[in-house]
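PROTOCOL LOG
Step 1. Enter all chains and additional molecules of the complex.
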Amino acid sequence: MRNMNELSVRPVPCSATPLIFDETKCIGCNACANVCQCDILLPSAEKGAHPIVMYPGECYYCGACVMVCPRPGALRLQHPVMNRAKFIPVKPDPEK
Ligand code: SF4
Ligand code: SF4
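Step 2. Run joint prediction.
Step 3. Record the structure below.
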């Protein structure tokens, strides 16, 4: 029988995937989870594993988690598709 004091959590589903972890580089220090002002990350119960992205839809892509990470490449941001657009100068029309 399940212990009534046990807690279980699961990420809140969202179409965005704001954080991509590289498990081969992450050391599970949780610095990224501690710095996040939105508290979207939850330290993993597994020692050495990266934090769990509990509320992916709440991320505002400030980049603080990436900047504080001591292992380059262990964590990167993935902006939503609609935010990846670039504005480029319009080429002059040769007809005019
Ligand atoms: S980008 Fe900012 S808001 Fe998003 S998880 Fe990292 S620290 Fe938190
Ligand atoms: S700060 Fe970097 S190394 Fe530490 S848990 Fe987060 S992704 Fe992993």
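Step 4. Note key features.
Residues 18-19, 35-36, 38, 40, 59-65, 77 surround iron/sulfur cluster (ligand 1) (CB under 6 Å).
The chain has two helices and four strands.
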